[in-house]
Write a structure and sequence with these properties.
Rossmann fold; transferase; single chain; 38% helix; alpha/beta; elongated; 531 residues; 7-stranded parallel β-sheet; membrane; 6-stranded parallel β-sheet; 18 helices; transmembrane; ALG1-like; Chitobiosyldiphosphodolichol beta-mannosyltransferase
Length: 531
């Protein structure tokens, strides 16, 4: 017989059961696979500093220009390109820090906790986006844990996962174990992880044909496979004398003045009327007039409107630029040895060789080591100076466009990726000397848009060959002419008869390249449905 006493037990249990069932239904309704995603929406996942991931920022920019609702998940730190102001940026908490409410813990405990929190933060960001995105675009590497996370979220929320293969994560990890390499148990585990969770994506984008061919053969990748070579964005171009003047007379004047190694090395200049690279008709103190009449007496203290536009100085040093992340896959000892050899040759040679100012951009763990080594060497150098700089995003292409020669020391851990820095340089019509590896010829065409070297002596010889007679350098001018847009190339033939014309598609902008290869991929279902 059901008594009043029983009701005091039964009713709370019934209510608790109903609540549990309701919560279970709500959780299942949220987590179950679905196809009702929001059309024209994408989430871009970067397990790193978003501002230091140019390819992913360019992807985001292209999605925005194609009217996609765009969320970006990643870490802060560096400035983003201005066009991403329209995107929803979801910054992850700094991975090296534990929450403030947690007490200090030894690394053996705090390390795993940080990994768990990192996974949790990414899951939270992906699941708190109100409507399931149509696409999740993830950068690889890093592979762990992002490939597994987007694999799970894609199945739960019905989103199509696109993997942008920049390199192979396990090959980078193998560099930490030089003795065992890919045979190391952790590397073998990482390789399995990357293959398992990366194999079945909706689509795969590759930076090289070599990477596509390797992964299709070795891992039997499923889904759509498209090679999307890196290309420079539209605003990259060869800098004008005015832009070069503004860069060194205004924005980075203090940086140049603070470098003690440059005192007495650079030609005399008088800012704001001249820099070490540029001059105006008001540069009365500099013996550098070219194609201009001597300035009138009033020009010593001129009204700015009377000052003519800047021009390049004939006595300027040659400007070499190398962009780097200062990691073990870029051996800067090669460049240091080459500069040492160049200094000796310039001092002993009767050829007209210029002084070299080498600017190294970027941040990374090996920066102090190499710059300390350079600092000691250049105390004995008369013809070479080497400095490091960190540039704002908008100033980086201006520096590349101002340089005379670019240097790439990128050595691919997988031999399947290409250096983005070279793409940026080509976008600014800057020829390069690039360290050779197996698939580099997909980008750098030897003796057409740059030169390829294998060691320091060969690099030193190439720098000397290209800069002999500076600022009038026929070989360098020819390489640069092959990098200019067709409309900007000189009508007269180059100084050397050349078959060095490269295919036009190499010099497409990022927008043109993306529209050709990625846009059809993300809009295929729209066209199929007649929308």
């Amino acid at each position: 017989m059901f008594t009043a006493k029983d009701s005091y037990v039964f009713i709370p249990r019934l209510v608790a059961t109903a609540i549990i069932l309701w919560l279970a239904w709500k959780i299942w309704a949220f987590l179950k696979p679905r196809n009702a995603h929001t059309m024209r929406s994408v989430v871009i996942v970067v397990l790193g500093d978003i501002g230091r991931s140019p390819r992913m920022m360019y992807h985001a920019e292209s999605f925005l220009e194609n009217d996609f609702f765009t969320d970006i998940i990643g870490y802060g730190g560096s400035a983003l390109i201005p066009s991403l102001l329209r995107a929803k940026i979801r910054y992850l908490p700094e991975p090296t820090k534990l929450p403030d409410w947690m007490p200090p813990l030894p690394f053996i405990i705090s390390g795993p906790i940080k990994v768990v929190l990192q996974v949790l933060y990414i899951f939270i960001e992906l699941f708190t986006i109100p409507n399931p995105p149509e696409f999740i675009l993830v950068q690889n590497p890093p592979s762990i844990p992002t490939l597994a996370i987007v694999w799970i979220v894609g199945r739960i929320r019905g989103s199509k996962v696109i993997i942008d293969w920049h390199n192979l994560g396990y090959s980078i990890l193998a560099m930490k174990f030089p003795r065992q390499g890919e045979r190391h148990p952790l590397v073998r585990l990482a390789k399995w992880f990357e293959m398992y969770f990366g194999r079945t994506a909706y689509a795969h984008l590759f930076v090289t044909e070599a990477m596509r061919d390797f992964l299709v053969k070795e891992w039997d990748l499923q889904g759509i496979k498209v090679v999307v070579h890196d290309r420079p964005p539209r605003h990259f171009h060869q800098s004008t004398p005015q832009e070069i003047h503004d860069l060194f007379a205004v924005k980075y004047r203090a940086k140049i003045l603070s470098e003690h190694s440059l005192k007495g090395f650079l030609p005399r200049y008088d800012t704001p009327y001249s820099t070490a690279f540029t001059a105006t008709n008001a540069s009365a103190s500099d013996p550098i007039k070219r194609n201009t009449l001597p300035p009138p007496a009033s020009a010593i203290d001129p009204i700015y409107s009377q000052v003519k536009a800047p021009f390049l100085r004939d006595d300027r040093p040659a400007l070499l630029v190398s962009s780097t992340s200062w990691t073990p896959d870029e051996d800067f000892s090669i460049l240091i040895a080459a500069l040492d050899k160049y200094n000796a040759r310039a001092a002993a040679s009767n050829k007209k060789l210029p002084k070299l100012l080498v600017i190294l951009t970027g941040k990374g763990p090996l920066k102090e080591k190499y710059m300390s080594e350079v600092g000691e060497l250049q105390k004995k150098w008369d013809w070479v100076r080497c400095i490091s700089m960190w540039l704002e995003v908008e100033d980086y292409p201006t520096l590349l466009g101002a340089a005379d020669l670019g240097i790439s020391l990128h050595a691919s851990s997988s031999n399947l990726d290409l250096p983005m820095k070279v793409v940026d340089m080509f976008g600014c019509a800057l020829p390069v000397c690039a360290l050779d590896f197996s698939c580099l010829d997909e980008l750098v065409k030897h003796d057409k848009n740059g030169l390829v070297f294998k060691d320091a002596p060969q690099l030193a010889q190439q720098i000397e060959t290209l800069l002999t007679g500076f600022p009038t350098c026929p070989r360098l001018t020819e390489l640069r002419s092959n990098l200019l847009p067709t409309s900007d190339r000189p009508t007269s033939p180059p100084s050397r008869p050349s078959s060095a014309q490269i295919s036009d598609d190499v010099w497409e902008t990022w927008d043109e390249n993306w529209a050709r290869y990625v846009r059809p991929l993300i809009l295929r279902d729209v066209r199929r449905n007649g929308i």
